[in-house]
Amino acid sequence: MKGFWRERGRFLVVIVLLAALGLAGWSGMGQKSFVRTMLSGLTLGALYFMVAAGLTLIFGLMDVLNFAHGAMFMVGAYAGWQFYTNPTFLFGLAPLILALLTGLTATPLLQPVVVNWPIPERWQRGLRTALFLAALAVGVIGVARLDVLGLAETAMVASMVAANPLTEATPQEPLATFGIRPALLLVAGLLAALAQARPGDATQFVRRGAAWRHRAVAGALLALTVGAALAREAGPLAVLQMDANWRFLLALVAGTLIGGGLGVAVEVSLVRPLYVRSQFLVLATLGLAFVLTELTQVLWDPLAYQMSRPPLFSQPGKAESILAWFSQHTTTVNILGVTFPSYRLFIIVLGALMLLALGALMNYSRLGMIIRAGVQDSEMVKALGINVRRVFTLVFALGAGLAALGGIGAAPFIPVEPVMGDRFLMQGFITVVIGGMGSYGGAAAGALLLGLARAFGDFLALKFSLSPAISEASTVIIMAVVLLVRPAGLFGKEE
Amino acid sequence: MSADADIRYVLQVENIHTYIGQFHILEGVSLKVRQGSITVLLGRNGAGKTTTLKSILGLTPPREGRVLFDGQEIQGNQAFDVANLGIGYVPEHRAIFRNLSVVENLKIAERKKGDLDRKADFIFDLFPDLKRLYKLPGNHLSGGQQQMLAVARALVPDNKLLLIDEPSEGLAPVLIEQMMEAIRELSGTTTVLLVEQNFIMASQLSESYYIVDDGRIAHQGAMSDLAQNKALIRQFLGASVGGGGK
Questions:
Q1: What ipTM, to 2 d.p.?
Q2: Which of A25, A67, A398, A485 could form a disulfide with A285 if both were Cys (CB 3.0 to 4.6 A apart)?
């Protein structure tokens, strides 16, 4: 019996806390304010969950406190806003990034050849460093004098002046001169891939088989690069001319992919070399957060932009029920007598879908099984012959992608600005601590608690004309209480 | 590089030095494991037995020396690549995945799809208990059941070599018997390098031994000789002499 209660205790704590909030609210607030506050809380909770889910998985599996996670949220919001408003910037950079990536994927193809090169052991290290530096130099030449600011301006203009982005097309470099850039970046990628393949180091294994798969990936990326280079001007036009609802959906997908891709890049280049010196990881990710924030300020100025809502959520008027909304697509919808923005309902649904998808992934897929095992003992997972490094990269990308998706989702109703990630990062950390490190279910419960506490706190502050700081403090108070009762968090495992 | 005459050794460790942080843990360990045999590593706590196993697999990579598996140099490679050559690892302290079910603990060890289906009968013959616990979460298992699961997990893929770290640790005598029986049965199909404190168990299972002391091989030979040499046993194995564990 004792075991039973220990297992179920955490659910009890959550239910009791929620019931207490609910009862107090219902009796003291009246139905209308209660429902409104509840829905606001759920919206906030959904956003917190999107940030906290990745944070908790990354911490649970890799012991990395990712301070750049808020920046991923911000990057997602910017990417989504760009894609929706004017994707010239994204289309302008895509060929360059894809070219670099194509080169980098050549490592497993080069490896079988170069490991047998007759290079004395004492020169191998120097050669690798030289190759990396050469790659860097070629890469820098490849992007020299690229008018990044001009590309960045397009979405800014479209957003601020409300001009028709279709007539705002910025003239781009002609393909003949531009074409040199992806070619150079391809070479840079290849040089780095060559260094990565460790020329002359014959003791390393060459993994057999799967060569065709590597070739297929490299070939597909090369084709994408060429396609992207040709679509620099036609691409954005095509995107802007498509139905705005589809464009929004594509923006969600594109932003998630961009966030995930950034996650891969960060894990491979910055985080991976530091796993063995984990005390520097906090500094490295914090530094990255600053760099990304400043970079957005340089590109788009320290301004706040508003992304417009897709037409699906912006027809004038109010739908009398959720069912009616499906045909009317109005801005607001009537729920139990409360007028509520339909877009926020979408955020709640998006959060719930994400929780379901993540639950399915974690419980029913091999990857999920490996992640759950790795959270407990990643060394043993490695000893079973599983490429844990790749799983780490995947989880980092997954977390970053989820945060980015949260960012795009939030963009239509909170200002898109360089510092937008910081607030969510802080709340994300509190959510993770409340829920228990490494548990996505805990993140969901924590996010729900925090979101509701914020919403009800705001309501109380307004009603009794208290300082709004009360509601901000409430989240920290919940964290303190949870830590006192269950130091490992609601769903955390005490070791 | 390997001499053809040595090919009957599945594993050859040549003078490896391993550091953990600043600490020089292994100071030149060499050993050979013959195909199809059970070889045991004996020694006091902290002598470097576990580190030897981890160094072979690449979990704590040796800084110097060579490790040959089937005649191929494997040191300096990623542990998962080494494991995929066909080395199974059963860590000490029953390190199963407690938050995974029994079947998931086995399933995760698959290297090819269907590994578990092919091996299920063999595994449940060795450890009949696991069959009825199939769906339970790992943390609901008793200590002995967890230990059996840890060994069973290493049997799911086809492994040419099993590195088993103290399988009898903290087990009841009945279970030690069962574990011994299982390991003896394994030696028919694979090769085992065993770390064991329980001298009785070690002496009954294996033909050859290495005694690790202070990060070096202090003594080696045939088990039958060691059993006679009470002085040697007392010198290097201390309290674990003669007794059947705790």
A1: 0.86
A2: A67
